[in-house]
Amino acid sequence: MRFVDTNILLYRVSTDPLESGKQEVAAATLASRDLCLSVQVLQEFYV
Fold first, then answer.
1. 2 Cβ partners below 8 Å, 6+ apart?
2. Which are the contacts of 9, defined by CB distance < 8 A and separation ≥ 6?
3. What is the pTM of this model?
4. Which of 17, 21, 34, 44 is deepest in the core (most CB within 10 A)?
């Protein structure tokens, strides 16, 4: 099981061309089936 931190979510939605590599890694990570998130991570992402 992998724990997803707020940074993974932020990199996934980033439109900064300098973060394109991080965006690809984040997308691949989020495509996995063995993920877990905390309510705190979701709150940080929302804010």
1. 29, 32, 34, 35, 36
2. 26, 30, 41, 45
3. 0.86
4. 44
